[in-house]
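Hi support team,

I'm opening this ticket because the web form for multi-chain structure prediction keeps timing out on my end. I have pasted the exact lines I submitted so you can reproduce it. The total is 1159 residues across two entries, so I didn't expect it to be a heavy job. Is there a limit I'm missing, or should I split the entries? Thanks in advance, R.K.
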Amino acid sequence: MKRVCFFVWLLLISFSTIFAQKQERMWKYREVEVIDQDKIQCIYQYDVRCGEDQRSDKIMLQIGNHVVKSCSFGTYLQDSLAVKLENKAYPTSFLSKKTQEIRTRSNASANITWSVFRNYPEGKVTIHDRVTSMEYYRSEEAPIGIDWNVDYKEEREIAGYICQKATGHYMGRDWIVWYAPELPISYGPWMLHGLPGLIFEALDVSEDHKFSILKINQTREPIACDLHSFFKADYDQVITLQRKHAEALLRTLQSKGVVKADNNSKSQVRTRLFFNPLRLPDDKK
Amino acid sequence: MRRFFVLFSVVLFVKLAYAQDVSTLKELSGVVLDAKTKEVIPEVVVTLKRKTEGNNLFGYSITDAQGRFLIKVKSPIIGLFLSFSSLGYETKTFDIESGTTFPIELELRPSTFELKEVVVKGKPIVGQGDTISYNASSFLSPSTRSLEDLIARLPGLTVEAGGKIKYQGKSINKLYIEGLDLLENRYALATQNIQASDIQSIQVLENHQPIKMLQDLIVEELASLNIKLKKDRLSKLKGHIKAMAGSSLPTENTLWGGDLFAMKISRKKQNMASIVGNNFLHANSRSFFSNMKKVQQVSIPLNPFPKAPIPKSKYQNPRTFSASFGTIKKITNDKEYKYNLCVQKQSAFYQTSSRTEYFTPNGKRIIEEVLSPEEQIKSIEGDFTYTKNSDRCYLQDRLVLGTSISDSETAIMNEKSFLRQQAQIKELMLDNQFSYKRKNSKGSITSFDNTFSLSAIPSSHFGVPEVYTPYAYAQTSKSLSAQTYLSGSYLWRLSDISSLSFSTRGDFVYSYFKSNLNDPDSENDTQGGIVKTISNLSYQIMPSSWNITLNLHGNLDWMRFRYLVLNQLKKETFTKVNPYWGTYCSAFCKVTSGVKFYVRAGMNHSKAISMSDFILNPIRNSYLMVSSKGEVDHPSLTNYSSSFSLDYSNPLIGLFSSFSLGYMGRTSNWVGGIDVDDSGISSYRKNFKNNSNHFNGRLFTSYHMYPLNTILSVEFAGDVGKNTTFRNKTYLKVTSNSYQVTGTVSSNPYPWLTMDVRAGYHSIGTKIESQKQKQLFDYTVDTSLSFCFIPDLYWTLAHNYLFRSKTDFNNKTSYSFFQSSVRYVFGDWECELSADNILNESRYEEYRVRDFDLFHRVYDLRPRKIVLKVVYTF
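Hello R.K., no limit was hit. The queue was backed up. Here is the completed structure from your submission:
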């Protein structure tokens, strides 16, 4: 009997250890709130240049019934995943697999951190951005109109739509944009807006920033807003902080001889700073 | 005073006029409401235009959250109109008339909105590091149907007739589909069957090393391709079913055929199956296993006339049946297995009839002749490969089993004679390749490779000539060859940037060859073996962006053969021990991502070689390559060659050009002996001496005019040379020259028209000492036009013309081939009716026999074909 008891006890112990091993740590991925549903999704190719370095990413523009959101394609994928996960906790292995999938799908070389929400809250523009991976900022501002000069004589066909040219000054940069009067949507990528048609292409005169349309889809997907614990700040201050942080990081990397691994797997010490914000703070108004 | 009054009135008038102008600054305002719910609509685009002036925009506004708009306009507003548009509402216009008062209230009726979904073509070519990505949609045209057609249109890439793909003039190393290599050398099965419309992009991976653990150690010079499918095509069963029926004239043969191709591609698992059966098309050799290298079609030189310039596929009606199936599965990120099975049977039987007119001094004679060759090849082959490819370990085992039988039979019948010959070759093979490499924590690599292969080739020849030779003959031969290669190596990672490796390899080859002819004088019997050992010591340094390798190797070969000397009827034993050495040095440097060069130089006991490639990418995606190559056999200086080439390509402006110059010399000095080829089969060489000197040059330029969808290309190539042969105590001097000019225009200027025109001139001249110069001229014009006047209906007209003349026999051949096809696409279905006709082929020869001239004219009767094809793509 003693022997039987011992075996039963051993069996129980071994089961419990097996189950204990199977129990994995649970984690909440990201908390989001669905603020609207989109009608149209536009994906833009975004090319940014800083000196000789050139990087690119895709920008997602979600036009909803009330809110218009513009962010990087990677952020959009992350937010969509978060909506699907419904703010519940999941095993870390599952989450790491999903985030890996997002990383390979978004495949971006430019690190775009901003998300712009127009008309959220009503009549305001909200910008979410971060300085380090821990410091998230939220800026709320009144929308600033753009005084566009519309040149109806210049026409160009982009993706089967006849587009017209317009030029304007916005946030410290001069923009040349091509919009399609056929699509009565007065928005565009990033914070560009206010034309009698959807913006198909936008080029900064200095040729540092360029948006060009890749895809337009009619959809019914949720527009999600991040629920991080944000610091409230003026967006110009956020850009100043980002610049300071990037410069400090570069100095640290250089002083420690930390190398960057690029695509060619040959090591090289990082010597240049890649920082060229879309918005120039000194010349905002 | 009067003057003052006038001035005053002018000033007043101007001021009034100005005031009038200010007063016309109209404010057009209003509210926009939903006609159903009577709620305000925000974000409505309100534009102010004049009816007669098209797009002239006088002003615009976007309604705010309260549905209000406001447009301020200076010019007179009569004749203008307001247009209100918003997604989900019908667009409404509002004419402004003289009595119109603002603000206005306007209602918009809701409507369903359909966006024409567009996917914009991205940049045609994007370069990132060592990867160049071609956006497939930028290179599609109505005539681009398969992946192969698409690759042929990509700048820098070419597809050869057999389906072989080349990048910058060099064969590609591997073809991946979504990162997996299922088909290896048989990639034509994929490239010819995958639809071009399923492709997202094609990536060229330069310097791609397939073995992960060697990625920083060994630089792969050949590029690989990776095909990316559109996302919605992944993990779905895709393919096509094809049915063909037709008739061939004048023999009135019924033509039939069917194809099934199915694939299911995902990033983890890929399946591909293909079944082909028909009685009039040749199977592409690159779609089948390439392991059967030893089986060759037996060709018997029976046809006494010069060969027809028409490719066989145009008039032959072969029976083809093949079935092939392959699977690759990624078990984990590093491990994968794959297997392939392929069965094929191809038999070609065709009859060509010719009518020959001889103009002799005794009058005209006409001879009708029927030539009916038949070839048949049957083979079955399968392989299984398991691969583990991680950062630390590489393991691959590959087992190949196969058998094949190849038969050929030829008969010539005319009023005077009947001649028949037969030949058969059977082959059985077994191959196992094993490779293992392991990297330890310090970065040192141990590797072991083993290949075992066994092949048996029995063959027989049989001939019944009745007129040309006085007796019939039969020959049988048997050969058996067993080969094992064993190699092992160790690589010491001395530091982060240097390594030393030692490898040794032993080859053991046994071969047996016996042939019997019914004539006892020509019996042949050879058996023996070869043992080869090769040892190699190499030192490699890899400072950042450099890779230099120094290599030293020593070989020892031992061979022993026992063979029958044909003319002396005695058996002799031949033994040879051959030690030799060699050294090789290579350097690869990547100065920046835009500049890189390879330098290679080496010599062994008999040969010295040096090669250098300097590659510059001055502008993004452009390419300039200067390469030179020199080779010499020493100390006898028997073979020497050198070449220089300059390649420039810049896809952004659409220019690709290459220029090369070369020289090749050869002096051979054989005194007799046994020559053993790779399969271990020996042959006996007689005394001969050979000298040759050749110079050649080539210039190729192609220009892609992107906005016009037009490609222009021109090629000049030439070769001049002299051969001197000393054989059987006589010298023979042959001088030869050849040159060719080819121009191509390929254009798709309008959506409804695609045209390809190719014109070429080719000349080969040979002069044998003290004889008249022989010259062969070819003129070719190939034209192909495709029209698409009605959407989805494509009409193609193709015409090939060749005129060939030879000076020696005053021999002239002309041939013209005409093809027309109509293709209609409706959804997933496609229907094509094609008709082709070889308009004529006639040859004319004139030569002297003894004391009289003989004129000779041959008309070949070629079949015409009409085929209906129905394809369903899923």
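A quick check on our side: The CA atoms of residues 166 and 214 of chain A lie 20 Å apart. Let us know if the file doesn't open in your viewer.
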